[in-house]
């Protein structure tokens, strides 16, 4: 297996492992398990820096490594999932890991003494896992699943202090507003899947270049995908959730803007 794929798998799954550990046994661990999440994201940062350095040393503008596996096989209905690693992927992995590591470290003192300290770090790890999924996916299905996990993580972190009504309302507002955008996103994905019978980027790009989808349907698919991005990146008119998102802990705000 290519070394970049190995590193990418570690970067992707380490935050998920930290989430599972902290959500189930974090309270019983020393320091309530914050070190588990910090260690996971720290290793991810080191690996992403190593990948970025390797990319710079032996720079190839056409570098691309793809690894995928069969997820659903039902006769004519097939969906493959996998990772796509290129220069943009490597750069964005480092950005996510760097900002996430800083948020984890800042939270040590900021969240000190909070009764749900271990749960907070579990949610941070889930957020990081979700963002890495968006960056690494080579298909629209894994992208969409990671997209929805980012939405769930945002809801959990914005409304973390849910005993405060304004925080609870802000979490719900962010969740519902993003769902509006995600409906458009899902419609765009379904239009592309209907046209090409695949959710892989490579199949979709090739199909479009060959004229497999054009005119009004291509425009509608593109608008659908863009509506999803509008919701996540808080663009007008789906911008209304972001100011209220400041109800969450401050390190969450930093991480959320990184996700945006």
Features:
two-stranded antiparallel sheet, 2 strands, 70% helix, 260 residues, 8% strand, mainly alpha, 10 helices, single chain
Q: Overall mean pLDDT score? A: 87
Helix content range of the residues, please? Answer: over 70%
Q: Return Rg in Å.
A: 19 Å
The general outline is: globular
Structural class per helix/strand content? mainly alpha
Strand portion: 5-15%
The largest pleated sheet is described as:
2 strands, antiparallel
Question: What is the end-to-end distance?
Answer: 32 Å
**Element-level helix/strand string:** HHEEHHHHHHHH
Would you count the extended β strands for me? Answer: 2
Oligomer: single chain
Number of helices: 10
**Poorly predicted ranges (pLDDT <50, ≥5 residues)?**
none
Q: Strands across the major sheet, in which order?
A: 1-2
Task: Please explain how this structure is put together.
Helices cover 70% and strands 8% of the residues. It has helices at residues 3-25, 34-57, 87-110, 117-136, 140-158, 165-196, 201-209, 215-232, 241-244, 250-259; strands at 64-74, 77-86. The protein has a two-stranded antiparallel ribbon. A hairpin with a 2-residue loop joins strand 1 (64-74) and strand 2. The relative contact order is 0.13.
Would you kindly provide a brief summary of this structure?
Helices cover 70% and strands 8% of the residues.
Topology record:
Blueprint: H1 3-25, H2 34-57, E1 64-74, E2 77-86, H3 87-110, H4 117-136, H5 140-158, H6 165-196, H7 201-209, H8 215-232, H9 241-244, H10 250-259
Antiparallel strand pairs: 1-2
